[in-house]
Write a structure and sequence with these properties.
This protein folds into 2 domains: 108 residues, no CATH class; 38 residues. Helices cover 50% and strands 16% of the residues. It has 5 helices and 4 strands; from the N terminus they run E-H-H-E-E-H-H-E-H. It has a 4-stranded antiparallel beta sheet with strand order 2-3-1-4. The longest helix is centred in the last third of the chain and has 22 residues.
């Protein structure tokens, strides 16, 4: 996912992006930092099975999420399509930059990236179905419970 800042909301977009990513790295790595609670509060709306793990500078700010289930992925996509995710990201960026005026211009999540995630979960669910009914011989069946 790519987050582009509104150029009219900050003096120097590149400097602001660098500050956001730098602060993210500092705070996300240090669980004992007192500001970590604020980060957790901002991203808790993503849900229990979704984590924002990396912010990187590319042509904008690249954001990498981990979704632990298909329902978490679908929830994230729903938050993205309704604009709720943009609000979460804008609040996070304002906090990390120390500038409440920071605005998000766009939050892009290409359909191809989303479809790749869907393919992964389809594959995982298919493997779970195969493994849960796999016959190992002598009429013994292994049943694997998924979490």
């Amino acid at each position: 996912m790519d987050a582009k800042l509104d150029e009219s909301s900050v003096d120097d977009v590149h400097q602001c992006e660098n500050t956001i990513v730098s602060e993210w790295r500092k705070l996300s790595a240090d669980e004992k930092n007192e500001l970590r609670g604020k980060i957790d509060e901002l991203v808790r709306h993503l849900g229990l099975e979704t984590s924002l793990v990396v912010l990187e500078i590319s042509h904008s700010i690249a954001m990498f999420f981990i979704c632990m289930s298909l329902s978490a992925l679908m929830s994230l996509r729903d938050q993205w399509s309704t604009g709720q995710l943009s609000g979460i990201v804008q609040s996070l960026f304002s906090f990390l930059s120390g500038d409440p005026a920071v605005r998000l211009k766009r939050l892009a999540w290409p359909l191809t990236d989303f479809e790749r995630c869907l393919t992964f979960f389809s594959y995982v669910q298919g493997m779970q179905a195969v493994l849960s009914h796999m016959n190992i011989g002598n009429n013994e069946t292994i049943v694997i419970q998924t979490i």
